[in-house]
User: Which sequence fits this backbone?
């Protein structure tokens, strides 16, 4: 507790089981919205969007045997497209890995962990434009916390989490953090 009586300890909003259920629901929504999986491509935005995209791809493949993960999953690095690059020059780019069939004419699902201002997704749309022309682009996020600065919305959301702008939402994934999956919220630093 701080002197003001406000707890600084993070509160767990989603447990590993909650995250799994949310991703299962999103995977079914993706199949339903696209009337199957033909020409569906998932592109994870590094860092935490990629493992979430991998999990979604596995869940989609478990429900639709025609969905080939290898040819339908990729990673889209947005580092050089960010509008805050000058204020954060130390961030190193990660490789962009497109699925074997590319993105032209595909139904691209951008996947990220948290949707906040919309600036990351704007950068992803700019980056995607350099790699081809999809038939459509949709957005899947684990958490939508509001506070948009750009007119961007998610098509598939695991959890809508109204927050104040001084709160911090953190997604912890075993794949990256080596700790149990969870989403937590705390007062910002």
Assistant:
């Amino acid at each position: 507790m701080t002197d003001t009586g406000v707890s600084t300890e993070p509160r767990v909003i989603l447990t590993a089981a909650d995250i799994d259920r949310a991703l299962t629901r999103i995977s079914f929504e993706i199949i339903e919205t696209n009337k199957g999986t033909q020409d569906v491509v998932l592109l994870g935005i590094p860092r935490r969007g990629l493992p979430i995209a991998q999990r979604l791809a596995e869940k989609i493949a478990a429900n639709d045997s025609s969905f080939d993960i290898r040819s339908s999953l990729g990673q889209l690095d947005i580092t050089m497209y960010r509008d805050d690059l000058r204020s954060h020059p130390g961030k190193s780019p990660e490789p962009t890995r497109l699925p074997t069939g590319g993105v032209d004419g595909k139904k691209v699902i951008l996947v990220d962990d948290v949707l906040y201002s919309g600036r990351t997704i704007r950068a992803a749309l700019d980056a995607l434009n350099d790699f081809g022309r999809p038939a459509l682009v949709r957005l899947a996020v684990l958490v939508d916390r509001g506070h948009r600065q750009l007119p961007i919305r998610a098509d598939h959301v695991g959890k809508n989490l109204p927050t104040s702008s001084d709160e911090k939402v953190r997604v912890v994934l075993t794949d990256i953090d080596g700790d149990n999956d969870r989403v937590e919220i705390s007062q910002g630093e």
Summary: The chain has a mean pLDDT of 93.
